[in-house]
Structure formats: structure tokens, C-alpha cells
Structure to design on (240 residues):
């Protein structure tokens, strides 16, 4: 296997939960540093790198609404949580020598740039990683939808979904001993079988724009690098 990347530009979707490690809440700095090292490996290959990060380690809008907070308010709280995570990840990536910019879908100019598509692409072309925070900037949309939207907007060659399991399974492998790993599925199969790797809007957006989705275990050593180099790791979602 050579060190020639299979993709020129990728977008990684990170859940907020991926940043909290074994903690019940918040950010585990060691986990964030480990993720940053993996991102630095990919950046070192010359790949243009974007990230969308969730906020579930701090608050989820839908969960907050179930506790009595108005849904739209809860969603905006969740967007702010993603900004906190994005700043933590930016700090960790820059400590690994990766120049990084945070762009937010809501205006917080004191801590991050506003999302401007052409500026984001220019950052990528200049070798800077870009972290997109605050989802789409709209309530009722998940960060999965934000990841698919930003991947389409920046013309990413692939959307990489880092998870805590090996890939896409026929059931939940943590509770179903008969769940099977699916190495390759189509967008339509994901929707029809309700495989729940991302929400339906995100899957449809990737399908409509021909963006393959790689689903893999982010905890695996150098899995991110291996995918970018074209190795078959985890599962792939594409047209056929």
C-alpha cells in the first residue's frame, strides 16, 4: 500500500460523544488529543480536511426538549455545545501542527469565523483544516445533516463517519449477538432498512450528490489514515 491518498478532500463527522471517552459528560482531553493525532496523520498526507463535530457530550436539543426546554431553544443550546467542542478540537489539532480554522453557522465572531463557503474552500486549498460548528444554524436539523450539507458545499470526495463500532451492522452489535457487519450497502438500502447510521435527510443528501459515506471505528489505530489511503475499513455506503 502506497502513501498516495485515494481522496483529495474529505469531511469527517465526529459525534460529541466521541470526545468524552469513558466519562459520562464533557470532554476528555486525552481522547481529543488522540483524535487530533489521527487527523494530523491524514493532513500530513496532503489531504484537504474538514470536520463537523456534534455536541451530544454536553447537550442534545431533542433530549433537552424532553426535559421541558422548548425544542428550538434546546436546539440552539446544542449548537453552542458544538462550538465548545470545535474549539477544543482546534486547540488539540494546532498542538499537532495542523493549522485549523473554526467556522460557525451562527455568528460568534469573537471565537470563530462565520461560515462562508468560498472562504472555507480557500482555507482547505491553503492547507488549513476547517471545523464546521453550530450544525446548519437551524433548529430541527441534526449535525449529521450538517455534515452532509457541508460535504456537498465544499465538494468533498467522501464523508467519513467515525463511530464506536466497526461499521454498519444489521442490528446493534452491542446488544444483538447475531448482528452482521455489512461491508457495502447502497443509500437506498440504508433508508429502506432504517440502518440508523445517519438520519434520513443526511443519507438522501449524500445520495443526491454522489458522496460516498465511510462508516468506521474511530478508536481503531490509524483507521482514518487507512481509509484515506483507500483501504477497505468498516463499511461503505454508495450508489452501488
Amino acid at each position: 500500500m502506497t502513501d498516495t491518498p485515494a481522496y483529495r478532500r474529505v469531511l469527517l463527522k465526529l459525534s460529541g460523544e466521541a470526545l468524552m471517552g469513558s466519562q459520562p459528560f464533557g470532554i476528555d482531553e486525552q481522547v481529543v488529543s488522540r483524535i487530533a493525532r489521527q487527523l494530523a496523520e491524514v493532513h500530513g498526507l496532503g489531504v484537504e480536511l474538514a470536520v463537523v463535530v456534534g455536541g451530544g457530550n454536553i447537550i442534545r436539543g431533542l433530549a433537552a426538549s424532553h426535559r421541558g426546554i422548548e425544542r428550538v431553544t434546546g436546539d440552539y443550546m446544542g449548537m453552542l455545545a458544538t462550538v465548545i467542542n470545535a474549539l477544543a478540537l482546534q486547540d488539540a489539532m494546532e498542538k499537532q501542527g495542523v493549522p485549523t480554522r473554526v467556522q460557525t453557522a451562527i455568528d460568534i465572531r469573537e471565537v470563530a469565523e462565520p461560515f462562508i463557503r468560498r472562504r472555507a474552500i480557500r482555507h482547505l486549498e491553503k492547507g488549513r483544516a476547517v471545523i464546521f460548528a453550530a450544525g446548519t444554524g437551524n433548529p430541527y436539523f441534526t449535525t449529521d445533516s450538517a455534515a452532509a450539507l457541508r460535504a456537498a458545499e465544499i465538494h468533498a470526495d467522501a464523508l467519513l463517519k467515525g463511530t464506536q463500532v466497526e461499521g454498519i451492522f444489521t442490528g446493534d452489535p452491542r446488544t444483538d449477538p447475531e448482528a452482521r457487519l455489512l461491508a457495502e450497502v447502497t443509500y437506498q438500502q440504508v433508508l429502506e432498512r432504517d440502518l440508523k447510521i445517519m438520519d434520513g435527510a443526511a443519507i438522501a443528501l449524500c445520495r443526491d450528490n454522489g458522496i460516498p459515506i465511510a462508516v468506521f471505528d474511530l478508536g481503531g489505530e490509524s483507521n482514518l489514515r487507512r481509509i484515506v489511503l483507500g483501504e477497505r475499513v468498516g463499511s461503505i455506503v454508495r450508489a452501488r
Notes: The chain has a mean pLDDT of 93. DSSP finds eight helices and eleven strands in the chain.
